[in-house]
Amino acid sequence: MTTEAVLFDFGGVLFNWQPARLIQTVWPHLARDDAQALSLAQAVFQSFVPGSEWSEFDRGALPADEVGRRIAARTGLAEADVHALMAAIPPHLAPVQPTVGWLEELSEQGVPLYFLSNMPAPYRDHLVAHHGFLQRFRGGVFSCEVGQVKPNADIFHTTAQRLGLNPARTVFVDDHPRNIETARALGWRAVLFTDAGQCQQALAAQGWLPTAQG
User: Fold this and answer.
1) Three-class DSSP category at 148
2) Span 166-174, mean pLDDT?
């Protein structure tokens, strides 16, 4: 069965996303080593578990100011520090050039490309405004626009319906194991992303290399 489309995640796949390194850059007074940075990242982002402040931000249920206030109150961090971290995220989300290059190759070949991203509205707006290569996508779903988040099953159902995708013939590329587990359980061709080369090799090994659809 041929692969008819590729569905990309954003953070950690097409765009840089390394929370611990971000924290070390923004909070050198708090994260003096890798262990402290990792602990702070887990405290702030709570591993993006549905229902957490950041997950609610992702799905558009909380505005940025309220998210910062709640995280500060829960963790004991200074609210100014939390807001500084949040403000540093847009420039941190730099394109991952090998993945962008692969995306552009697929686009030139005529492969239908789509995206599915947990992304708060302010960061969505930044990415769309600053990265022309996103026009390569024929469509996509941002969590903030549908009020749903990965790894919950509902956002995968919404994505398939809105974009007209057949999960059994669509490759979903994501760097989070829980998202991959959900996708596979729902019948998607899902590949855990480490880097563009590894992902292409995995597709070839599975016989899932995409084909142009016109």
Assistant:
1) coil
2) 97
Structural fold of domain 5-15+94-206? Rossmann fold (3.40.50)
The CA-atom distances, in angstroms, between 100 and each of 10, 146, 165 are 11, 25, 22
Maximum CA pair distance of the chain? 54
Q: What is the pLDDT of residues 54-95, one digit of tens each?
A: 999 999 999 999 999 999 999 999 999 999 999 999 999 999
Strands of 113-117's sheet in order across: 139-142, 113-117, 5-8, 170-174, 189-192
Question: For residues 33-63, b (16+ Cβ closer than 10 Å) or e, as one string?
Answer: eeeebbebbeebbbebeeebbbbbbbbbbbe
Tokens in use for 2?
């041929």
Burial zone of 152 (CB within 10 Å; 0-12 exposed, 13-18 middle, 19+ buried)? middle
Candidates 1, 39, 13; CA nearest to 117 is 13
Q: Is the dihedral of CA 107, 15, 94, 196 positive or negative?
A: negative
Residues 160, 28: Cα–Cα separation, whole Å: 42
**Domain parsing of the chain, residue ranges:** 5-15+94-206, 19-92
Helix extents (H) in 78-211: 79-92, 97-108, 121-130, 143-146, 153-163, 177-185, 196-206
